[in-house]
Amino acid sequence: MQASTSSPSQPGGQSLYAALADWARTDGLVWIYLFKAIAAALLALGIAMKLDLPQPRTAMTTVFIVMQPQSGPVFAKSFYRICGTLVGLVVMLALIGLFAQQPELFIVSTALWVGLCTAGAARNRNFRSYGFVLAGYTAALIGIPASQHPDGAFMSAMTRVGEISIGILCSGFVSAVVFPQFTGELLRSNVRRRFSSFVDYVSAALAGRIDRSHIEASNARFVADVVGLEANRSMAVFESPDARMRSGRLARLNTEFMTVSTRFHALHQLMNRLRADGSSVTVDALEPYFREIAPLFAKAGEPVLTAADATHVSKQLEDYRAALPKRVRATRAELEAQGNARLLDFDTATELFYRFVHEMTEYTATYASLAVDTHSREKWIARYVPKTNLIAAGVSGVRAAIVMSLLGAFWIATAWPSGSTLVLNAAATCALASSAPQPSRMATQMALGTVLASLVGMVLTFGVFPHIDGFAMLCVALAPALAFGVFLTTRPKYAGYGVGYCIFLCFLAGPDNVVQYNPSSYMNDALALIASMAVSALAFAVLLPPSTPWLRRRLLADLRGGAVQACRARLKGLRNRFESGARDLMFQLAAIAGSDDAQRRDTMRWLFSTLEVGNAALDLRHELAALPAHPQYARGTAWRVAIDATLKAVSALFERPGEARYRDALAATVRAIDASQTVLQGMWKPDATSAAERSDTPPREERHLLQRIQSHLHFIRTALIDPQSPLAAYADSEGANARQPHEDNRGANHAS
């Protein structure tokens, strides 16, 4: 009998092939990254040695600071590292020239510079933050050793920059050439996944198949997607012309996704409030429209996933939107004839529904445009605008400056030979750990990783290196030790240990061109490294730690401040700043909350409330700005004064929530609704008989404009009295049962 052979066409071969493919997509990528990181480190070490640079280990250390699994982060990190290195070099040469003979002033000025850069790193996002980190760290790395020999400071600084540059170039070369993993591919898959996830979410929510916990989980995931997509976009532009050609559309896609997700959530919440309030007639009238949405996201009965097929969905949505106003007017006329419907509820819901359809059309059109290289939608200037608390950033800078100053004072007082290592590594640890969600934990993990690196490095330096000869044997000795640390960095739970291990194993055991076998110096340097990280971890835990309630309160105040700005600030570019700032703060708050579900839920409720009220205020202000120049629309009229009072009261409520301010905001909103209704009734003259009376009747568009203004006010009121809102804690019996504003059954629908 002939032995059977397994192939991909046979069941056994298919199983093996599928297992290998799954391994290649998961653990295989880890091993590829591990191989690339070690290859880049050894290549940098070899080139630095060949060029006879004094400290080749600096080049190897730089590789582990820069290296990432995808090419985009490597290129972006390398770019900002070079920028930060050059800035740090210039600053440190200036400080050495000024204070070379005054060590106290030199340490203080260096500490201030590192503190300033650390504050800048906390203020910025992505790898722009890394540029600030390196500007401070490089200044300490170059300047503190050079300050010991000021006469050779310039040459020392130049060789250090050369070693850093070699590490950067080797990282970029290996990342781009050896089994490259591109951020652009990850970006495309994330965009596709987010589009399909949001479509599924919309379809399930409109069909009533989603509960509150699912809503919160989905929106938390969408927040992370928004922040992650912006980070990936900013890195992908370093990879290829293709990513740069689509960068504007990706930024636009992110902005439009924020807007459409906010609009849909507002619509969904309003419908929940109407159901809870017993507005069954209004809900029944709107349900048929909601059931029509899900089929629009399909092509030939199949869900649309790719950008190329999204053109079909965009066209379906555009046609649906064009026919919507006429159909809604007919439905409203039927409700008006029945006489038992709340037309203000209907008008508000249809306005939100129309805006959602419009913004979903724009979002889908931008997604479809990604299928081609160039498109008119690329011309987009709005960008994701991160928001960081200035006080928190300032605290990070002050903390770093205090740590460096204290350790510098200890160095000067004790004249410890490894004092320079102690101070410069404190600068690096404060800068690198400050961007982590739990910096004290990160610094502690780095310290423990350094302890392990110290032991392994001692074995290599004093037990292995004296018995080998040649660069090839050096690579054989270093590769297993480095591989362990790189593997740790691929596991999120142990990443801090891996970072400390890899970087400081290179620092301690990385061979120089002139190797010194000095156990006393080695142990002093190891002790200095561990002590600097321990002091940094203690500083993060004691000096206004980032995870304490004070920072959460500050960030929550900043989140609510978005609604304040929506009511007060200049309108140009405000919506984009409001949307992106709210999500950026939510992302930071979620990182602080960690696994605390109660904090996460509370933060999500404040996000929902801020987005709902803030967007309604923005819509209201845009409609007011579009009013024609006519005496009855002037700012000094009673109804405009009432609306201004509403915006002022709502902004005061979000600025500092309280029961009295809640009552004032709710009462002001009800008064503004009544005032606008009075104006609307005064301009509606269906029974006009004379030509003069008919000529005084404003055009339908003006009436629609006033109806939209009234709808925005009504939505603000419903958001304020929502029992699921965090503002419900300030409601009393009087506020909770605030009367329904007067409605009139006249007037055409305004979804146009």
Q: State the end-to-end distance.
A: 78 Å
The largest beta-sheet arranges its strands as: 1-2
Major sheet details = 2 strands, antiparallel
Seen as an oligomer or otherwise, the chain set is single chain
Count of DSSP-assigned helices: 28
Low-confidence stretches: 1-10, 686-696, 733-752
Number of domains: 3
What form results from the Cα inertia axes? elongated
Structural class: mainly alpha
Number of strands: 2
- How large is the radius of gyration? 31 Å
Mean pLDDT: 84
- Proportion of residues in β-strands: under 5%
The proportion of residues forming helix, as a percent range, comes to over 70%
Listing every helix as H and every strand as E from the N terminus to the C terminus, the arrangement reads HHHHHHHHHHHHEEHHHHHHHHHHHHHHHH
Defining traits:
single chain; 752 residues; mainly alpha; Methane Monooxygenase Hydroxylase, Chain G, domain 1; two-stranded antiparallel sheet; 75% helix; elongated; disordered N terminus; disordered C terminus
Q: Can you put this structure into words, describing what you see?
A:
With 752 residues, the chain is mainly α. It has 3 domains: 15-181 and 387-542, no CATH class; 183-238 and 247-372; 554-736, Methane Monooxygenase Hydroxylase, Chain G, domain 1. 75% of the residues lie in helices and 1% in strands. It contains 28 helices and 2 strands. The protein has helices at 11-25, 27-50, 56-66, 71-99, 103-123, 126-146, 153-177, 183-206, 212-236, 241-245, 247-276, 280-291, 310-338, 343-369, 390-414, 419-433, 439-464, 471-489, 495-509, 519-542, 549-568, 574-593, 597-625, 638-655, 659-683, 691-696, 700-720, 733-736; strands spanning 298-299, 302-303. The chain has a two-stranded antiparallel ribbon with strand order 1-2. Helix 4 packs antiparallel against helix 7 (153-177) and helix 13 runs antiparallel to helix 14 (343-369).
